[in-house]
Amino acid sequence: MSTKAMPLSQTRSKQVESRFALLWKRIWRYRLVYLILLPGLVYFAVFRYGPLYLSQIAFKDFQPVLGVEGSPWIGLKNFDTFFKSYYFTQLLSNTLIISVAKLIFGIPPAIILAIALSESRFVRLARFTQTVSYLPHFLSWIVVFGVLLGLLSPSQGLINQAITRTGAQSIDFLTNPNWFRAVVVSSDVWKETGWGAIIYLAALLAIDPAQYEAAAIDGASRLRRIWHVSIPNIKDVIVLVTLLRLGNILDAGFAQIFALYSLPVYSVGDVIDTWVYRQGILNFQFGLATAVGLFKGVIGLVLVVVANRVAKRFAGSGLY
Fold it and tell me: Which residue spans traverse the membrane (predicted)?
């Protein structure tokens, strides 16, 4: 019986060795490509996958003196505290409303800008417009807050000055609950549209010019060529960007809202991340903050998987 088992085990070991040798040969062949990928892989290993070990804090009454391993295990108590919080419904609704609004109003302007740049016959004007449009992406939200304050200040803001000159009363945009979400969404669209258009512009530039020529020969107008050639060719990119943003649907933009919001607009502007900041950082409830972060990650994963299946079924393409 052992004589029959030995050749089988040797055969399997040889197969494993041959596969390993083939894999190593392929890696060595594309060693420069893997070398370029190495910094990114190290980054994700250290800052993304490594911290997953510390996610156990979500199930513990974490005490810095005792450390991660020494802190007492409390199970799902941190999750229960968050779900039963008086502000849970308000926080979740504010987060979803702001995030979905950014998604709906953020993607179309980027696509339109990319198409406009690609269709422009004035190369220098297109380059200037592209540069000016994506520069706001590099501004911090503190700087943007200063810009918004100069525009929306009730007393000296340019917009309110124009409003008061018409005889109407000035509007306190940043502290008025009826206007705060509109300010958040519109400022995010202004800041990120140019940057988001870059990926769509790259996809448009990769389209074979012969398709446009064939459409022009068939008598298609420029608008028809955009509708029947440009948009279908960047459909996969649009789906990809939408899926990636769906994974972060519970991230309404902590830095932006933290810079813009104040006590009068907590009812419409307080999101999960700002609440976690107050509870986890200011009140030292690290376990609660970790539990909320884990909850957001799970929800994001579920949304990406579901949206990917829906996109593959109806749009014919997905993230994987």
Answer: 32-50, 96-117, 138-159, 197-216, 237-261, 281-307
